[in-house]
Amino acid sequence: MDAKKIPVSEAESSPAAALFPSVASVSERFAAVHYVCSREAATAVYLMVQLQRPLLVEGPPGVGKTELAKVLAQTTGYELLRLQCYEGLDESKALYEWEYSKQLLYVQMLKDKLGELLAQATSLEEAVRRLQQQAGAFFSEPFLLPRPLLQAIRAPQPVVLLIDEIDRADQEFEAFLLEVLSDFQVTIPELGTLRARQRPLVVLTSNATRSLSEALKRRCFYLYLDHPTPAVELEIVRRKVPGIDERLAAQLVQFVQRVRRLALRKTPSISETLDWARALVVLGADSLSRELLAATLNLLLKDKADLDLVRREALA
Ligand SMILES: Nc1ncnc2c1ncn2[C@@H]1O[C@H](COP(=O)(O)OP(=O)(O)OP(=O)(O)O)[C@@H](O)[C@H]1O
Ligand SMILES: [Mg+2]
Predict the structure, then answer these.
(1) Is any ligand 1 atom within 6 A of the Cβ of residue 61?
(2) Distance 184 CA to ligand 2 centre (A)
(3) Is the predicted pLDDT of residue 9 greater than 60, yes or no?
(4) What is the pLDDT of residues 215-256, one digit of tens each?
(5) Based on the domain organization, do 177 and 303 belong to the same domain?
(6) Same domain, yes or no, for 152 and 116?
(7) How confident is the model at residue 155 (pLDDT cuts 50, 70, 90)?
(8) Are both 85 and 192 inside the same structural domain?
């Protein structure tokens, strides 16, 4: 087959290392785009960048796992490539596939040309051989549909690759991912071996709905993001809801932290705290009265049993 090779080169050290010369520089750059980082999170980001290792971020919903990858892209200026995982995700959706409809269209348009070629064939075997000789034209760059993993490998500039919610993908996909994460190299039979020019900064996230393989964890640095401490949550509210009254911010964070200690079906996340804070600002509140709390609790809790429990326990 007439395979066209795409040039490859050795992976180089990440230029992002110079952007984050210390753990403190991660916290500062992230804070500048309103992402509040614990020291543990800033250290994990610093090390993944310096040592070029993927970072696996695990934790409950809404604690800033996806946002961390977005902010990493924002602060480095790298393009963010996102692979959203789901049950049944396979290589063709994650790595590449051939653009079948385009191939078909070209075959239709080249019908006459192909007819001429095959007309000279004296046997079926010869016709097949002649067709095979032309197949390279249809399995070539213009018909390739690169998906996020291949896009990351072929990117001329370094990128942030977010593999979001890996726990939703099947274990077979996780095994395939291991290979990609080990050497950032893939072989496409028709095109040859492609290797990343620059290792992407890889962030994997998981809600821990199932445990991930030891092999995957071994290849990654690990960060568990939990619900924030009161001080961190207050800082997030201040940064993300500008103009909020100081007293209101302190009261609502204190309330959310108290509610999280209850045995709820769905513990409120930072997203809910922020939605609630923004709603209270829109309502013109400068403090959290009992009436206001009772009237807006449904912004924080989105489950009937949880609402009942909090009304009983926290508003009694
Ligand atoms: N440390 C933080 N600093 C600032 N904002 C934050 C922080 N953590 C979370 N947020 C806010 O919370 C929102 C939810 O975060 P994100 O979508 O990253 O959660 P997640 O952990 O990926 O949740 P899920 O598991 O449901 O996907 C973000 O849009 C962001 O505004
Ligand atoms: Mg997410």
Answers:
(1) yes
(2) 24
(3) no
(4) 999 999 999 999 999 999 999 999 999 999 999 999 999 999
(5) no
(6) no
(7) very high
(8) yes
Ligand 1 within 6 A of CB of 166: no
pLDDT given at position 1: 38
Q: Which of 29, 66, 166 to mutate to test the pocket of ligand 1 (most atoms within 8 A of CB)?
A: 66
The residue among 192, 224, 256 that closes a domain is 224
Give 62 Cα–ligand 1 centroid separation in angstroms: 5
The pTM for the full model equals: 0.88
pLDDT tens string 64-89: 999 999 999 999 999 999 999 999 99
Closest residue by CA, ligand 1 atom 16: 64
Same domain, 171 and 277: no
Q: Same structural domain for residues 69 and 108?
A: no
- Helix 39-51 × helix 23-32 angle, to 10°: 110
262 and 297 housed in the same domain: yes
Domain extent, residue 267, equals 230-313
Is the per-residue pLDDT at 199 higher than 50?
yes
**C-beta of 268 in contact with ligand 1 (< 6 A):** no
Q: Which of 26, 58, 63, 86 to mutate to test the pocket of ligand 1 (most atoms within 8 A of CB)?
A: 63
Residues 272 and 155 in one domain: no
Residues 53, 108, single domain; the answer is no
